[in-house]
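Schema walk-through. Below, the input block comes first and the output block second. Nothing else is stored per chain. Lengths vary across the set, and this one has 87 residues.
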Amino acid sequence: MNQHHLFFLALSTSIKRKGSSVTCPICAKTLYDKHSLRKHEDAVHFNIRPHACRHCGKAFSLRNDLKDHVLAVHAKVKVGQSSKHHN
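--- output ---
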């Protein structure tokens, strides 16, 4: 996670939104708003993963998780493959 993401994560966790939080009816997790609740339910309870990797097919609920996966897994594969082809 880069510093930009860490900054906004810290900022968002430090902001207290009185009266706007909602509770998941399935697991009782408290979330900031209805939008966050819907994304939580889709990802955690209904296993909805609309963002699929075009390299291996692994699917993710969040686009940023897909981007992290591609960089962590497939960027290394490309480097390894390209070095093998040059030998």
